[in-house]
């Protein structure tokens, strides 16, 4: 079986929410020497993007979406040990969470996986995280970065509030935002240091911002 078929298999099995099938394709990907990162992004994450589109068109419903997410996590479980991202020299800490009122955590979990693979220490606050918890965690952990995720226009408004608190209480912290309704422009308007459109970009942007701050 070729690389294209394996990536398509991972993608389709994720959409179908078929755990056995997706795990079997993940093992095939490793056996065939396919880059684990590519398998996650071009296979599983591509599948989740299709799921998102189908949901919007009313072709898929909540229970099916959750099965797809389970399948994606199962495949990532197989692929994760083989991820070889360029690692940060000295481990850096990132506090990561989904903002208040928002329980969409599939994207945040992907960001976490890629960050960990790159050597970051991730303090995962979970989802529907109150503003104060972000600020407290950053201060307690002396985190280098605070990463905030939001999938709804109604929840993303917590981001500028958190950023402004951090500017007062932990001004050296690098702030990063991401998620469906966010954009480069919005991130700038919120006063964030960085924005990333996907998990791969999140790692790249985090490294660039650390270099800019001095000390990657
Ligand atoms: Co809901 N949902 N949902 N949902 N859901 C959306 C977000 C929505 C756009 C669908 C729609 O109506 N068109 C819409 C929001 C509209 C708006 O903006 N206001 C919506 C809604 C309305 C709701 C409910 C209110 C529905 C209801 O109950 N009436 C409800 C909200 C509950 C709540 O949060 N309080 C709800 C519930 C749910 C489920 C529980 C069923 C489920 C979430 C399960 C879970 O996450 N555990 C769900 C899902 C799955 C979706 C869609 C279909 C898919 C989201 C997803 O997982 N995508 C979504 C439609 C869509 O996005 N088009 C939708 C796959 C994931 C890999 O991508 O999350 O974008 P994504 O993450 C990417 C990037 O954005 C980026 O990297 C990730 C990986 O590459 N990224 C970052 C994310 N965070 C980052 C942080 C960074 C950097 C990059 O730096 C820190």
Describe this structure in words.
Strands 2-1-3-4-5 form a five-stranded parallel sheet, with helices on both faces. By secondary structure, the chain is of the alpha/beta class. Helix 5 crosses helix 9. Helix content is 57%, strand content 13%. The protein binds CO-5-methoxybenzimidazolylcobamide. The site of CO-5-methoxybenzimidazolylcobamide has 34 residues, from helix 3, helix 4, helix 5, strand 3 and strand 4. CO-5-methoxybenzimidazolylcobamide binds at residues 45, 48, 52, 55-56, 62, 65, 101-108, 110-111, 147-149, 151-154, 176-181, 196, 198-199, 202. Belongs to the methylamine corrinoid protein family.
Q: What are the low-pLDDT stretches, counting only 5+ consecutive residues below 50?
A: none
Q: What's the end-to-end separation, in Å?
A: 40 Å
Order of helices and strands: HHHHEHEHEHEHEH
List each distinct ligand once: CO-5-methoxybenzimidazolylcobamide
**What's the total number of strands?**
5
Mass-distribution shape: globular
Strand line-up in the sheet with most strands:
2-1-3-4-5
CATH structural class of the largest domain: Alpha Beta
List descriptors.
Rossmann fold; five-stranded parallel sheet; binds CO-5-methoxybenzimidazolylcobamide; 2 domains; alpha/beta; 5 strands; 216 residues; single chain; Methyltransferase, Methionine Synthase (B12-binding Domains), Chain A, domain 1; 57% helix; globular; 9 helices
Secondary structure: elements and pairs:
Layout: H1 3-16, H2 19-31, H3 36-56, H4 62-79, E1 93-99, H5 106-117, E2 121-129, H6 131-141, E3 145-149, H7 158-169, E4 174-178, H8 184-190, E5 194-196, H9 199-213
Parallel strand pairs: 1-2, 1-3, 3-4, 4-5
Helix pairs in contact: 1-2, 1-3, 1-4, 2-4, 3-4, 5-9, 6-7
This protein binds CO-5-methoxybenzimidazolylcobamide (B1M).
Protein name: Cobalamin-binding protein
InterPro entries: Cbl-bd_cap, Cobalamin-bd, Cobalamin-bd_sf, Met_Synthase/Corrinoid, Meth_synthase_dom
Domain B12-binding: 91-216
